[in-house]
Specification:
With about 200 residues, the protein is an alpha/beta fold. It has 7 helices and 8 strands, in the order H-E-E-H-E-E-H-E-H-E-E-E-H-H-H. It has a single domain (about 25-200), classed as Double Stranded RNA Binding Domain (2-Layer Sandwich), CATH 3.30.160.150. The termini are far apart.
Length: about 200
């Protein structure tokens, strides 16, 4: 009987520990960092060139997790969510924009008169000042663009960082709000940074 009670006690202890771990480790909630494309501004003066950009299939499929609130995390696919936004931002700077299937897509480069090739790298971070709700109240989107000429010679690098914030009363209707605001801020700065480059206008 004592052995049975001891076994039951150990089982209850293990079960309680599992519950505590589940509460502490939290989970990852899906959100989107896709921006409102209508909020991507146009450059004051466009660059009269055809630019191409390339995002690998691996990057397009990549999912990342960053901190939310209450010990939880959020998960999203930054390249997939921002792909349309990148195209819109590049189109607001250059007269023509094409998307390459590979970074060495020489046929597309030659056929479409591409003079600039852009390789974007996206990094993100998030945090929350809430211990009770999981959506992030602070979000950051960083877009590094390496721009080369058609031969592969590097011309310039732009580094555009967007910040987004949202309070609980705001994101009750949109848990992705801080992320979307960060994306829109990053894309607006990307347009500004590319358009301001003298090297790209030569």
């Amino acid at each position: 009987m004592l052995n049975f009670i001891g076994t039951m006690g150990r089982a209850a202890s293990v079960a309680a520990s599992a519950v505590v771990v589940a509460l502490v480790t939290g989970c990852a909630h899906p959100i989107s960092v896709a921006p409102d494309l209508n909020q991507v501004p146009q450059a004051a003066s466009k660059i009269n060139k055809t630019a191409a950009y390339y995002v690998s299939a691996e990057d397009m499929a990549k999912e990342v997790e960053t901190p939310g609130g209450g010990g939880d995390k959020v998960k999203y696919a930054p390249y997939r969510d921002l792909d349309s936004g990148l195209y819109k931002a590049f189109s607001q700077v250059f007269d023509n924009v094409v998307k390459l299937k590979s970074p060495q897509d020489a046929a597309a480069i030659a056929a479409q008169g591409v003079s600039l090739v852009i390789k974007p790298t996206i990094t993100t971070s998030s945090s929350s000042d809430s211990v009770l709700t999981w959506p992030p109240t602070q979000f950051s989107v960083d877009i590094l663009c390496t721009v080369t000429d058609a031969s592969g010679k590097e011309l310039v690098r732009t580094h555009s960082t967007g910040q987004g914030a949202a309070t609980f009363s705001e994101f009750v209707g949109d848990y992705s709000l801080s992320a979307k605001r960060a994306s829109q801020d990053a894309l607006a700065k990307l347009v500004r940074d590319l358009a301001a480059s003298d090297a790209l206008r030569r």
